[in-house]
Amino acid sequence: MKTTKQEALDYHSMGRKGKIEVVPTKPCITQRDLSLAYTPGVAQPCLDIEKDPSLAYEYTAKGNLVAVVSNGTAVLGLGDIGPLAGKPVMEGKGVLFKRFADIDVFDIELNTKDPDEIVRCVQLLEPTFGGINLEDIKAPECFYIEEKCKATMKIPVFHDDQHGTAIISGAALINAVEISGKKLSEVKIVVNGAGASAISCSRLYVKLGAKIENITLCDSKGAIYKGRTEGMNEFKQEFAHETDARTLADAIKGADVFVGLSKGNVVSKEMVASMAPNCVVFAMANPDPEITYEDATSVRKDIIMATGRSDYPNQINNVLGFPFIFRGALDVQASAINDEMKLAASYALAALAKEDVPDIVKRAYEGHEMNYGRDYIVPKPFDSRVLTWVAPAVAKAAMDTGVAAKPITDFEAYKEQLLERLGISQEIVRHTIHAAQSYKTGKLVFSEGNNVRILKAAQIIQDMDIAHPILIGNPEEVNALMSANNIDHEGLTIVSPTDWDKSDFYVDEFYKLRQRKGITREEASRLMTRHRHKNYFAAMMVRMGDADAMIAGMTSHYPETIRPALEVLDLQPGVSRVSGMYILIIKNRVYFFADTTVNVDPNAEQLAEIAILSAKAARRFDIEPRVAMLSFSNFGSAVHPHSVKVKKATEIVKQLEPDLIVEGEMQADTAMIPTIMENLYPFSKLKKRANVLIFPNLDSGNIAYKLLNRIGGAEVVGPILNGLSKPVYVLQRGAEVDDVVNMAAFAMVEAKRK
Question: Among residues 675, 593, 581, 580, which one has the least CA distance to residue 628?
Answer without folding.
Answer: 593
